[in-house]
Design goal:
Length: 279
């Protein structure tokens, strides 16, 4: 007689356990301007200027990997050869990364303001006993000043993970998983990853978490708060629509303008969890 086949399925119906947020473009530095300034200055100093769009292409990845991807970009690679006489190699990437670190630290120091609405979102999370994590493509040496400046403004995450602390950065889930372990999370389906980059959304999805894409305040629109507010309504709507389309296409469960709009999404995720839904 054939043994019966059984299927067992658990359904989590508890609350949100943790929210894990990116830094630049999500919680600080409206427009994610610090990395762009540093990358553009880095390549300009080499005699190979790059555009802002080119600099933003690999955004969200660990910074040495970001430099490697820039060096393999066809236009940049060819321009480098025109100036240097040969294509960039691993030794060039190592040297560029070493030169990049102080540039990045300087740029971060100039753009470390909290994004409007973060404080209110944090208050809501704390009131609902949600643990707060942060992760970033920055190396630990780059963000000491940023972490200190954020603390002065009232933001101190319970866990902070840098790409250099895990085997692989985004889009691998390692940083979010380390956040979850640091925070004592029991159920990954009860975690929410909030990020302004497509690779950051992919990281959250790969970790089995809910994801919220931040379209306007981060890398997709890529404008400072002052520059964004100076745009007319029609131009804002046009740029917003493009950013939302890309974020939705990346698989994000929700897309918002900035962290100021996150509370209704978290409330809806909490309600969906209570009904047994999974990411």
């Amino acid at each position: 007689m054939t043994a019966p086949i059984y299927q067992f399925e658990r359904r989590y119906t508890g609350p949100i356990e943790a929210v894990i947020m990116d830094w630049a473009g999500t919680t600080v530095d409206f427009g994610s301007m610090a990395p762009i300034r540093a990358f553009q200055r880095l390549f300009t100093d080499e005699g190979v200027p790059i555009s802002e769009a080119e600099a933003r292409g690999p955004m969200g990845t660990e910074k040495r990997e970001h430099i490697r991807q820039l060096c393999t970009h066809p236009r940049i690679r060819d321009a480098w050869k025109d100036v240097k006489g040969e294509y960039p190699g691993e030794a060039d990437i190592d040297r560029l990364y070493d030169d990049f670190v102080p540039l990045q630290i300087d740029a971060i120091a100039q753009t470390a303001e909290l994004i409007p609405g973060l404080t209110e979102a944090l208050d809501w999370m704390r009131a609902n006993e949600i643990r707060i994590g942060a992760n970033t493509g920055y190396a630990g040496s780059m963000i000491e000043g940023l972490v200190a400046r954020a603390a002065e403004q009232g933001y101190t995450p319970d866990s902070n993970v840098c790409a250099t602390e895990v085997p692989k950065g985004r889009p691998y889930p390692h940083m979010s998983l380390k956040n979850a372990m640091d925070l004592g999370v029991q159920h990954l389906c009860a975690c929410v990853k909030i990020d302004d980059t497509l690779t950051g959304i992919e990281e959250g999805l790969n970790a089995g978490m809910w994801t919220i894409g931040v379209a306007v305040s981060g890398n997709e629109v890529g404008m400072s708060l002052d520059a964004w507010q100076a745009l007319g309504e029609v131009e804002q709507d046009t740029r917003r629509a493009v950013a939302y389309k890309r974020m939705i296409g990346s698989g994000a469960h929700y897309v918002i303008d900035s962290i100021a709009d996150v509370i209704p999404c978290l409330e809806e995720i909490a309600a969906r969890l209570a009904m047994g839904e999974k990411p």
